[in-house]
Amino acid sequence: MSAIYTKRLTKELRDLNKNPPEGVVVEEAENLKKWKVRLTGAPGTIYEGEEFKLEFRFTTQYPLEAPDVVFIKPYIPVHPQRTQLLPYWSPVQTVAHICLSIISMISSCTKKELPPDNDIYIRSASASPKKTAWAFQ
């Protein structure tokens, strides 16, 4: 394993457990390759108090390469937007940054609805969001 990968994820895990951002709890991180994180909907939003779960999958190229981040069923928000980190990834980002970005994205929603192409996407999507061809408008 890469020394950078090990040092960085060990520090991030320690920081998240010691001083987590509001609404973020690491539920499982038995190894550095896969973590499960629980997010709680922000107060004053339509998702207030709802719980969502993410799975982070890291390669030994982290932090130079973005982790795969996917919601775990059934803890998936009913939300009109899908996003992908890869075009915006920078090694200065952390798991905490990703979690806060997702909470922010969820919080900005004013109507619980799925994307119009959700059923097609679910049937054809790869297990890795990085393998999805994204179109941005």
From TrEMBL:
Keywords from the UniProt entry: Ubl conjugation pathway
Domain (UBC core): residue spans on this chain: 4-137
UniProt keyword annotation of DNA damage present: no
Stored InterPro entries: Ub_conjugating_enzyme, UBC, UBQ-conjugating_enzyme/RWD
PROSITE patterns (alphabetical): UBC_2
A Pfam family of this chain: UQ_con
Protein name stated in the entry: UBC core domain-containing protein
Organism: Mucor flavus
